[in-house]
Structures are given as structure tokens and as C-alpha cells.
Amino acid sequence: QVQLVESGGGLVQAGGSLRLSCAASGISFSSYTMGWFRQAPGKEREFVAVITSSGASTYYTDSVKGRFTFSRDNAKNTVYLQMDSLKPKDTAVYYCAAKYKSSGEYDYWGQGAQVTVSS
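RESULT FIELD:
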């Protein structure tokens, strides 16, 4: 059974930091591209960041560049999203997702973790 489990969400003041984790099971983790997405209240789900299966490359949406850092530990089947200099506009439910290498759509999704940034 494939499972992605996010943790590390919470409430933080603007300018603060949080670190999200996503632990995967049931897949050959090192063969999967991993992504982070988020959905704010009343908004569509949006792309945040992606990391290649080896962890060699990352890409971030413009609004988080320089503030968020995506990393992975393939020995632990876990990815991380370090979020610094948080802004109220970052408030959303954050989702971890996995897709096999260069396949088109993400195959698996986590349950989401709430991140709330107060002004």
C-alpha cells in the first residue's frame, strides 16, 4: 500500500520558519520525483516546488524562491520543505506528491498539512 504522510505544519508568525516532512512507504522512493503543492482557502491547488529522484535538482515557484528549500533523504524515504521568512500569503494546506521519474501526472498524494502564518 502506497502512503505519503506529511507532518510539521502549524501556526507561526510572519517572518518565522517551519519545516514540513513527508514520509513515503510502498514505493521505490529513489525512483520518484517528489513535489510540494499548496491550497489556500477558496483558492485552487498550486505548485510550490519539485525535486528530482536523486535530489540533484530542485525548482521553485517564484513566490517562494529564496525562502523555501526542498530536500530529500532517500535512505529515510523522506522529503522536507524548509520554509523561512514566512508570509501570511503562505497560509495553506500543503500536500506532498510523488510521480515516477519523468511521468506526466503525480501518482500519489499525501493527506495535507495545515500551515498558518499570522501577521
